[in-house]
Write a structure and sequence with these properties.
The structure holds two protein chains of two kinds. Chain A is of the alpha/beta class. Chain A has a single domain, classed as STAS domain (Transcription Regulator spoIIAA), CATH 3.30.750.24. Chain A contains four helices and six strands. Chain A has a six-stranded mixed β-sheet with strand order 1-2-3-4-5-6, sandwiched between helices. Helix content of chain B is 45%, strand content 19%. Chain B has ten helices and ten strands. The chains are: A alpha/beta, B alpha/beta. At the A-B interface, helix 1, helix 2 and helix 3 of A face helix 6, helix 7, helix 9 and helix 10 of B.
Amino acid sequence: MTDTKYVRTEQLGDALVVTPLFTFAAFAEPDLAGEWSLVQSQVEAPAIKHVIVDLGAIPYFGSTVLQWMVQMWQRAKDKGGKLATCRASPIGREVLSIARFDQIWGSFETRAEALVWLAQ
Amino acid sequence: MATVLVVDDAAVDRKLVGGLLKHGSGFTVEFAASGDEALARLASVQPELIVTDLVMPGMSGLDLVAQVAERYPAIPIVLMTGKGSEEIAVKALQAGAASYVPKAALHQHLLATVQDVLDMVRQRHSHARLMNCLNRGQFQFALGNDPALIPSLIAYVQSLVSSIGLCAEADVIRVCIALEEALRNAIYHGNLELTSEQREGDPVKYQELIDDRSQREPYAGRMLAVTVEVTPTSGRFVVRDQGPGFDPLKLPDPTDPENLEKVSGRGLLLMRTFMDEVTFNETGNQVTMVKRCPAAA
């Protein structure tokens, strides 16, 4: 598990759980870039097939987090994996819906539910 | 005359604290011997402040803080902490307690702490009442390409929009998300002329590009003009950069299934969804966003 300033990652089986920890404060982007680069390399690790994005630590988010999620999804897809989200706030779910990502990514209340979906 | 509710399972401590409060500043004091009793009293008594022991049988002071924060958020709580309960005191402060006083120093510090907390709460209420009288807020900011200022600007706008009562809190968040997208676009795509393709590459290299352009002309000297005009019925937010502009009509629709896998391009979508109006000037380097009060719309 890595627990840095802007994002936390943990491995659950063959899924990497990525928890963004920032909202608008992420404009201090030098640190963010380095952490995000680390997350990308973790997604690319052979032991990881799927990605779960746990949105429970941030009450809202915008296009930056969406961009991250698409990039992680692409990497997971390349390995035959999927991306699921969990614990999004009502506004978070709204953002995902606006971007139409609720149509392609599983969205769940808990990590456990996300893991079940990923295993199907 | 302020009413203070004192919560402590020890009768001798209730008497001590009550005496200090009554004789020191003439507070009216009510008592409860437990967290449960305190919650029951709050149904009928409206204290301006609660002073509570931290360690009590049954409902602890920490649990009481959480319950009061949820059910009576306007009532501040001052904790009385004993030796060895510092860690729980930190948790209680994080859960919403306003302050604490060590039990060993009640004589020296209780009155001053209670008065300070009451003064702060009264000032906050007074400020809220003043903000209810606000008819128009208008501000102009001239920012350099300093992303570190953006969170403060958004917090400022959030506070202004909330205070003036333009819209419900969830809509205030939507306004802030839209504003953040507009500011991000203006700085990175506008003033620094970074492309979506560059943003989609290696994040460290992208950050190096940001750092480089931020220090080099013609990018470094470009400014961001942000105008905020808010009334109880509408909010108008104008963001203007000094870049060459762009044609928003040429952006691909990110909701088109063909474009779902594109990494970028959702900022404008969020702006258009969360604001009632989004318009660009002819050059494409100025965006005007309007949010209307639902009741007035």
